[in-house]
From TrEMBL:
GO molecular function: carboxypeptidase activity
Keyword tags: Carboxypeptidase, Hydrolase, Protease, Signal
Gene3D superfamilies to which the protein is assigned, alphabetical: DD-peptidase/beta-lactamase superfamily
Origin: domain of life: Bacteria
Name listed for the protein in its UniProt record: D-alanyl-D-alanine carboxypeptidase
Amino acid sequence: MLRHAAAASITAFAVLVSAAPAGATTRDPVRHELRRIVAEDGWPGALASVKGRDGRARDLTAGVAELGTRRPVPVDGQVRIGSNTKTFVAVVILQLVAENKVRLDEPVETYLPRLLRGDGIDGRHITVRQLLQHTSGLPNYTEYLDPDDSAQLTRYYEPRELLDLALAHPAAFAPGAKWAYSNTNYVVLGLLVQKVTGRPIAEEITNRVIHRAKLRHTYFPPVGEQVIRERHPHGYAPDDTGKQIDVTDLDPSWGWAAGQMVATPSDLRKFFAALLDGKLLPTAQLAEMRRTVPAEGSVAGAGYGLGVISFPLSCGRVAWGHGGSIPGYQTRAAAVEGGPAAAVAVTSQPTTDEQNERVFKVLDTALCQ
């Protein structure tokens, strides 16, 4: 049985750092932090991609690519990026807003008639903006998937199945009443993109975002594809005993528009930098994206905009980005306006708040250099 969001002791693994000459850790604090979290938190592997204020980009690794070997993590290897997918979807929606094909404050009912109906749920009273910002009150379908069912990892889910899981439960709150993260919002947004454009969400993301941002190692896996295409570290999830189970190959359809994509850390870094630099959205839509509400339970001081999170850094700057967690991988990526950009990935599931905090500290260190 795979372990899910429960505290566990994770066995520490030997640390291998690619191309790390003597003294490198003192000269590069990000490399030092990567080595530390692998040694202290027991991640099988860790990756980072950083572009500093000086414009210099570098890709770093620690740990091993596969347990039971001494093979180093491939530099800038592909990983599953989970909920970072949401920012890609949000960019597509806001491009459609700029094209006058979607309105942010229009009810979902306008685009998807009679789709959202349930106990306290009515698409006539939920707006597109509320979906993007997680203020819709829609219940989170991932709470009703069985996290201990390993068969779930290879099962294919239709998007409508995911939505039906959510709609079988009452609304979490009235639309607009508060903020609460729900993957269901982005399943609905994926369906909305497909209805408005008449094309698959994967195709719209590829043409409108991936190609425009020149992301050469990023993709939305097609139906049935369970492998990661290019060089990649293996991903693991701890079972009830704390043993790491290899979950590299899985069917990501249960994440769909809320979390299905694959990318490298450098592509994630480039994506958020391009977004913040105004290369993917017109000025008006980027401004809408950056209108935030307090995101309670997230990083201290964080705000959630339209598919993007703002959060303060230890050096006083403000970063904009997102994170993602899916069996096998956790990723965090962000950029500072006119400044650094970075992405960090680890190759297992966190089981404690402290592990999450230390991964975030690597990102903070990278963005504060």
